[in-house]
Amino acid sequence: MTACDTLLVVIDAQRAFVDPAGSLARAYGVDELQPSVDALVRLRTHLGQCAAGTRPVFVRSEYRRGQFTGGRLDHPLADLCVPGRNLDCEWAAGLDTTRASAIITKQQADAGETEAYRTVVERAVRDGVRQIVLTGFQLTTCIRVSALATVGLVGARGARVVVAEALAGARASSYVQTATGSRVDATRRELRAAGVLVAQN
Q1: What is the pLDDT of residues 94-148, one digit of tens each?
Q2: How far lies 127's CA from each of 5, 50, 68, 122, 153, in Å?
Q3: CB crowding 14-46: b at 16 or more within 10 Å, else e
């Protein structure tokens, strides 16, 4: 497929998920960020090498205090991507958003719950896009649920949904193998079962 056939979506490339001063590092330690930091380097390189006509969609998160902590405000993740509370909502360092075709703000993990996202995706497919590629953070949460929602939006209309795993990060602990595999393994299985192509390189 060509760039004209493909819509590139960058999910949550924000300091919350890749910066030592972000909420994830404060909650779990800087080492937990390493896979995402590595993915960000690859993502920046990829965006820099995209054809001049490629205009990705950037999706960012703005949440409520305590949204993911059961309302607890003393939890380290209570202010995750809460505007004005910290640096979480800022774009990740070195990320160029000037060529974005759209910048969408979501208030839930799933971008598909945001009308602006649904409108952009549906319009792209109507205009001839046949492949929607999701990148960004976090693979096991926001990317996973957004990819599943995107399949629901466009799968019946002949468009393929792809998660570019090399351009998507997760916490280091999500790659740790247990008797049943890792959280990343489980995410891959769930996505593939729903018809999402997980591209690992």
Answers
A1: 998 998 999 999 999 999 999 999 999 999 999 999 999 999 999 999 999 999 9
A2: 9, 20, 36, 9, 15
A3: bbbbbbeebbbbbeeeeebbebbbebbeebbeb
**Domain range summary for the chain, segments of one domain joined by +:** 3-199
Question: In this predicted model, what pLDDT tens digit does every residue of 63-104 receive, in sequence order?
Answer: 999 999 999 999 999 999 999 999 999 999 999 899 899 999
CATH architecture group of domain 3-199:
3-Layer(aba) Sandwich (3.40)
Cβ contacts of 22 within 8 Å, gap of 6 or more: 14, 15, 16, 33, 86, 87, 88
The two beta strands, 57-61 and 131-137, are: unpaired
